[in-house]
Amino acid sequence: MFYTYAVGIDSRHRKGEIVCHYEKRQHYILIYTRTTAQFQIDDEEIPVKKGTLLLISPDKRASYTGVWEGYCDDWINFYDPDNQLANFRIPINKPVSLQENIPVSQYMQLMMNAFHSGMAQRDNVLSQLMMAFFTLIDNYLNSSLPQIAHYQKLLELREEIYAFPARPWSIQELADQVSLSPAYFQDLYKKAFQVSCGADIIQSRIDQAKRMLAQTNLTMEEIADRCGYNSPVHFSRQFRKCTGYAPSKWRENTLGENMVVTDHG
Fold this sequence. Notes:
Layout: E1 3-13, E2 19-21, E3 28-33, E4 37-41, E5 44-48, E6 52-56, E7 62-66, E8 71-79, E9 96-97, H1 104-115, H2 122-142, H3 151-163, H4 171-177, H5 182-193, H6 197-215, H7 220-226, H8 232-243, H9 247-255
Antiparallel strand pairs: 1-8, 2-7, 3-6, 3-8, 4-5, 4-7, 6-9
Helix pairs in contact: 1-2, 3-6, 4-5, 6-9
């Protein structure tokens, strides 16, 4: 079990200030840099980029400061009495550069919220959050999947596709949003999510149709229109192809004896 005893989010230090931690501590220090910095761990000088994770062990002396500006980071001080870190393949006392899509600050914010919550199971919750965080980093560092260029932009586009399934999306339009050629965009998208962009567009519409069939009494024509289909026939054909059922049959099977809720939106 991990025991957290201090958490800091968006901690800022003026230009020229040096943060120091002495060796022979009892706790680990987990740091996520929000600015470029210069670290020294024992006698080793380490230049560190923004968006870098460092896990400093209790036996190491460490100091760090900003390079071109003040220094800013998120950090957690924690104990590991059961040596849980041995279960994770995460470098210790070495910088780990992370992509923007890894939600480090979000995890640390959750941990700070839990730390100050006063809840009865606070230590348990914090330990589980730490376990989840280290599992995430371990998987990121040791995944066999290649690191994908433009991943964050692709992820944002995918979220937009699923948020607005009725839009008349085109590959050209989506590729233009990330300043890529259509062919390169489609190749990166497939590598990033193991599904083609065209298939995702269709799936987003089918998912929306399922929700509307289950939760509203809209007609097939209305659902087709709200899911981006110009023709109810095209909608019905594609729905059957993806689910194995006609929309009306899917609604019947899903609802059973339940009452359909009217959509007032």
